[in-house]
Amino acid sequence: MAEPGFEDDVYAEGAPEREFHAGIAARLPRKSVSGGALVRDEAGLILFLEPTYKPALEIPGGVAEADESPLQACRREVREEIGLDLPIGRALVIDWIPVRGPWPDQLAFVFDGGVLDAAAIARITPDPVEVGGFAFRSLAGAGERLRPSMARRLAAARLALEIGETLYAEFGRPVRGG
């Protein structure tokens, strides 16, 4: 007998609760959710993308679409942005990002994108609409091209790799329970 899948889980959950007051669900706050991949080369350098639409460096990934999980968004965005179907691994960091200007608060997931060898790196095909270039760099080497919160988030992701745990962070700063 096959293990139940995602669709089976959704079916088994049943119908949503009936609202006691019309429109209550519509008044609940909305957060955006994103999934990015920490991809490294064999020297341990991080794959950074140079977006065509903003000055800061990014890792492959992006915002989840409606009814798309952070992991699905990460896989889709990696495929779109660098042209590779990578085996995306475990969640390294779940980072809450506060409201900034016109942007709502967000939950940003960073997943383990693995280590690419020279042959895989040679197959990277950046999306010309979204990606102006790419490079493997250290966090220090990315320097001022990284937003401070992204630098903190990626440092937390490196730590999560080292200790073998998923970390929860707020604006890139790991939060320990207690």
TrEMBL record:
Keyword Repeat tagged: no
Q: Which UniProt keywords apply?
A: Hydrolase, Magnesium
Quote the PROSITE patterns the UniProt record gives: NUDIX, NUDIX_BOX
Listed SUPFAM superfamilies:
Nudix
Q: Cite the InterPro entries for this sequence.
A: NUDIX_hydrolase-like_dom_sf, NUDIX_hydrolase_CS, NUDIX_hydrolase_dom
GO MF terms here are: hydrolase activity
Cofactor names: Mg(2+)
Q: Which residues form the Nudix hydrolase domain?
A: 29-161
Name the record gives this protein = ADP-ribose pyrophosphatase YjhB, NUDIX family
